[in-house]
Amino acid sequence: MKDLSGARTGFARAGTPMKHHFDQPPEGFRILPGRLDRPAQEALLADIRAVVEAAPPYRPQMPRTGKPFSVRMTNCGALGWVSDRAGYRYQSVHPETGRPWPPMPQALMDLWRAVADFPHPPEACLVNLYDADAKLGLHRDEDEDEFAAPVVSVSLGDTCLFRLGGLARADRTRSLRLSSGDIVVLGGAARLAYHGVDRIYPGTSTLLPGGGRINLTLRRVTPAP
DNA sequence: CAGTATCG
DNA sequence: ACTG
Q1: Strand B positions with any atom < 7 Å from protein CB?
Q2: Where does 2-oxoglutarate bind (predicted)?
Q3: Which pLDDT score is estimated for A24?
Q4: Nearest-angstrom CA–CA distance, A28 and A30
Q5: Is the dihedral of CA A146, A9, A70, A206 positive or negative?
Q6: CATH number for domain A27-219, candidates 3.40.50.720, 2.60.120.590, 2.40.160.20, 3.40.50.300
């Protein structure tokens, strides 16, 4: 049964008298018109293989409960996003090896420069590894101290069902498929929009030998100098 | 105080 | 554990 209360913000019909409504996705959300071609995807994948070699993917845990994520993660760049019983945070070292995160590959620095429209380089690239059953619940990227910079996301491998909401958790959401090579920018008002990954469609890409999906999210964490 | 990138 |  649909929620007919109407007492929600979201992708409301135009002309609704309530505040905080929009009939379009939040301003600043865009899927770049041209996805990365196969050679570019393969080059990025080679970079990520090196990252994974130096900083092995691990399974984060939810704050307080310790409940494991289905998604495995690692990072590259000066800072990496981690989650464990102590909470969400950015830190400069891998939580299991204690070593600094491997450097941000040049291709990702170049990609950021090309699409972010922000005058300072990214500090963190979170690498999310999805197997066929992995999901990421609706959330906002709000652990950064710099919201003027966008979040830039690159999809590699199997297609996923991506869900985009609004600025409040209860806002209406839209679902869209993201396929290998797609580049998404969450900037402007959409920088703090709720989003998540509802499902992976196995066998929809030949990029990753074992199947699955890799998502790279580039972020500026500290205020621009 | 409840909620959270969990899971349903 | 930390934010809102």
Answers
A1: 3-8
A2: 128-130, 213-219
A3: 65
A4: 6
A5: negative
A6: 2.60.120.590
